[in-house]
Amino acid sequence: MMIQSVRSEKDRIVSLFGLVDQQLAHVDDRVHSVFANHLALKSAGFVEKSVSLTLFEYSRDRSNAKIANYVTKMVERENSLNCEKIEAILTRFSGDWWPEIESRTSQEARAAIDSLKNIRDLLAHGNHNGTGLVSVRNYFNASVGFVEVFGDVVME
């Protein structure tokens, strides 16, 4: 189950990919990497926001507003999420969640999460990453599948 705020964010990024596709033929090849970098950052942010928003919803539904806000602030401190960090966050809630997510997601989806985090970190530190738009799109699509399973497990 993908909560509405996460679904809206996913739709915005899908729309951005569509817009970029329309522009590729009209821009210099050097600009393609700018598009890929921006979409990689948006995709990594999608994972981070999805984890945070889903855990906020979980906390809000099961506790009071103060606890839900506390959970959100604690999760948001964990930026630049890869699977190892997501596992650590989830273990604070329930030892059952990560094994369930891991069993229901592909190695490819988990590798995509880690790749987006690595690209994000490279870009944040001013480094070139060399990842093209096709790879970024594949990582994003795989991350959407991961986020769907994440929501299913957490919100069950």
Task: Provide the descriptors you would attach to this structure in a database record.
single chain, 156 residues, 7 helices, mainly alpha
The fraction of residues in strands falls at under 5%
Structural class: mainly alpha
Q: Roughly what is the average pLDDT, rounded to an integer?
A: 94
The tally of domains stands at 1
- Biggest β-sheet description: none
Low-confidence stretches: none
| Series of secondary-structure elements, N-terminal to C-terminal | HHHHHHH
- Rough shape? elongated
Number of helices: 7
Helix coverage percent = over 70%
DSSP, total strands = 0
Radius of gyration: 16 Å
Terminal Cα separation, in Å? 9 Å
Summarize the structure.
With 156 residues, the chain is mainly alpha-helical. The chain has seven helices and no strands.
